Amino acid sequence: MKVAVGADHAGFDLKGEVVAWLESQGHQVSDVGAHTMDPNDDYPDFAVAVADSVLSGNTERGVVVCGSGVGASITANKIKGIRACLCHDTYTARQGVEHDNMNVICIGGRVIGIELTKVVLEAFLGANFIHEKRFQRRLDKLMQVEQNGLP
Fold this sequence. Notes:
alpha/beta; 5-stranded parallel β-sheet; globular
């Protein structure tokens, strides 16, 4: 799978491990930065870069790592067409794709380490949206809110 990966300074070290591991698993990785450790960089820049890669079709899914994963998730979800979630467990990572067609996962580099990150990413990247009527209905409603705001 083609995967965009980005991280700020708080996720920089984990991102390096994630990129190497994803490539070792046969994924095509687009590393959108940070490419150097800069304690003054900002997570929104990397969340936007990952989202842009996914929306442009250059990659199929995205991974953003910041300190807690919260800021990356909030930022990514501001972008029309992105469905991002903070995930530190396999159930949420898999179910977010299967039920909600999640296309970006956010991880806290100060919260979990590489071994748990690997199994979370396996669940995220191995899942597919389930095309059942109830899940599609809910996704359609979500997209309607994205388009129109509050009813």
